[in-house]
Design brief:
Layout lengths: L11 H14 L5 H16 L7 E4 L2 E4 L3 E6 L2 E8 L2 E4 L2 E3 L1 H9 L5 H4 E4 L7 E2 H11 L3 H7 L5
Antiparallel strand pairs: 1-2, 3-4, 3-7, 4-5, 5-6, 7-8
Length: about 150
């Protein structure tokens, strides 16, 4: 499909104006090349691109807006990915730092943190998300298999 063309209607006056403008500018490109360039430029500025902002936690990418929660002493505590930072109580933290802040001890964040990527899905343990992500990324399987079974 990359090399196929689809005809597009262009008013003849616009076609002639563009053709003359190219000739006056000394541009040797064809009108169809300029129209293709103009459409690509318009698409790049007007079509929303997928939001690529988010927090990279080892092999797991958490998109902007992802909710995280951790339970400690019967209370749920919540954090959120904002832009490219994990935010808890107005402070930027790492998952490990968040666990230490809440509990005062070093915890296994993969086991204790639950993740919800959007409001329409349920909460899943971070370790489950990590395993899903690892299965999709080539080369990660080797590290996943090498981890201790008690993690």
């Amino acid at each position: 499909m990359e090399n196929e063309s689809i005809p597009v209607t262009l008013p003849s006056s616009l076609y002639l104006d563009l053709s003359y403008a190219l000739r006056r500018a000394g541009d040797t490109r064809q009108v169809n090349e300029i129209v293709t360039l103009a459409v690509k430029t318009w698409l790049s500025t007007h079509v929303s691109k997928p939001d690529i902002r988010g927090y990279q936690w080892k092999t797991l990418f958490l998109p902007d807006g992802t909710d995280l929660r951790m339970r400690y002493l019967g209370t749920w505590y919540y954090a959120k990915v904002e832009d490219d930072r994990l935010m808890f109580a107005g402070e930027s933290v790492s998952p490990r730092d968040w666990g230490i802040t809440l509990t005062g001890t070093v915890r296994n964040a993969w086991r204790d943190i639950w993740i919800r990527r959007n409001i329409n899905e349920g909460w899943n343990r971070a370790s489950a998300w990590r395993d899903k992500e690892c299965q999709r990324i080539p080369g990660i399987d080797r590290r996943r298999l090498a981890r201790r079974s008690g993690d």
